[in-house]
Structure prediction request, 68 residues.
Amino acid sequence: MSTIGPVKWQKSSFSGGEGENCVEVALHEGNIMMRESDDPSSTITTTRAKMAAFIEGVKNGEFDHFAH
Prediction:
């Protein structure tokens, strides 16, 4: 995916120190972009509303089984 202008990527403070084990997110042109730090050329894009619904599910514990 090509983007216009600079994209400011953000990762969790809980990510690995060498840029490993992390998913990075960015707000770009009104949408949320996500990528894995070890494969930055592959990104997905979603809306803010869909990301908000996902975050609420994370906060509610609905995805905890993926981390174990």
The mean pLDDT is 88.
